[in-house]
Amino acid sequence: MLNLNYRSNQTIVEASNEVIRKNKFIVDKDLQAFNKKASKLNIYAADEAGIDDVEYLVKRVKELAKKGLESSEMLVLYRRSKMFEPYGRALHREGLSVTAKTIHAAKGLEARAVFIIGLLQGYGGFPDIWYNDAIYQVIRREKFHLMLEEERRLFYAALTRAREEINLITLRGSESQFIDEIPLRYFTVPAVQAVSLAQCPGCGVQLQPGVNFCSHCGQKIA
């Protein structure tokens, strides 16, 4: 029997499947989309955090509102509540309203358009693993893998809240590795997806800064 997703369109389902397939331990089954419509994912890489990323979200919310979307049909998701503060202030100044939730609190929710903010690599970003913290330097490799896979599953959950449109918001040069795990063909503007992280010579997955092994295949990196 097929595992059908009745919420998201085909592009969103396929892109989400690509992400979750990177997991080795925490694995969800591949889904098939009931809705066969296709729409590319949007990605915005800001040059200055808290400035043009916020402007992009406000502009896109205005555009969607003009198309008839209600505030309940636009969902902003984030890893930590603090990430939303500059966006919330800007939306309030413009008299705009959206639904805003942490990804954990968004379980069971859905929206026609979803914005995922704070997609940055490193401390306080997403994945939220403190690579440079002394405690995490001594964590066994398997524990690190499980932590990263749980973060990836959280990102997968965020993607699959969307029915028609996804907007991924990041910072140029500090893009989350999860963005790079989505193939270029699913994006409207593939050029902005370029990520500066090095790749594992064994499996090709992006390497994490400050970590001397591949989070996917376990290969040691010199």
Structure explained in plain terms:
The chain has helices at residues 10-20, 52-66, 85-93, 134-137, 141-159, 177-180, and strands at residues 4-9, 32-35, 42-46, 74-78, 99-102, 111-116, 162-171. The protein has a single domain, classed as 3-Layer(aba) Sandwich (Rossmann fold), CATH 3.40.50.300. Helix 1 (10-20) packs antiparallel against helix 5 and helix 2 crosses helix 3 (85-93). The chain is globular, with a radius of gyration of 17 Å. The chain is 28% helix and 18% strand.
Which features would summarize this protein structure in a list?
alpha/beta, Rossmann fold, five-stranded parallel beta sheet, two-stranded parallel ribbon, 7 strands, globular
**In percent, how helical is the residue content?**
25-40%
Question: Approximately how much beta-strand content do the residues carry?
Answer: 15-25%
**Relevant CATH superfamily:** P-loop containing nucleotide triphosphate hydrolases
Number of helices: 6
Lateral arrangement of strands in the main beta sheet:
3-7-6-4-5
Q: Rounded to an integer, what's the Rg over CA atoms?
A: 17 Å
Series of H and E elements: EHEEHEHEEHHEH
Biggest β-sheet: count, sense, barrel?
5 strands, parallel
The CATH topology turns out to be Rossmann fold
Please write the CATH class name.
Alpha Beta
Note the overall shape.
globular
Secondary structure class reads alpha/beta
How many individual domains?
1
> What would the average pLDDT be, to the nearest integer?
83
The total beta strand count reads 7
Low-confidence blocks of residues:
190-197
CATH architecture: 3-Layer(aba) Sandwich
Distance between the termini: 45 Å
